[in-house]
Write a structure and sequence with these properties.
With 123 residues, the chain is mostly helical. The protein has helices at 4-15, 19-26, 30-38, 45-55, 59-68, 84-122.
Amino acid sequence: MKPISEIIKDKRIELQINKAEMARKLGISSQLYGNYEDGTHEPKIEFYKKWKEVFNQDLLSIKIDDERSEPSESNANYGKSTDPNYLIGIIKIQAEAILKQQNAIDRLTIRIVEDDASKKTSA
């Protein structure tokens, strides 16, 4: 897998925007975005959330899959997945996603039950 820094750079190039414009889209400073794109800093969990919100692409899943692979010269961050704070952040994001899905299912179930009830009373 490509490093996150390459993925975000590729997206910026695809959008034909500069680093400052990409940083604005993501609500972070140009310097911080540049550090992420250059690979000199590891993005924070908030960055992954915002990226998913803006581009509908789950970079965190890509990162997790990448870290599960064997360590290599191109994967200098191998082993970070054992950091408890990192894992807690991942769990929180996954829990939020599950809650959103459950809420959507609940709303749909209520709508189906209400539609069935209205059909029975009108019949």
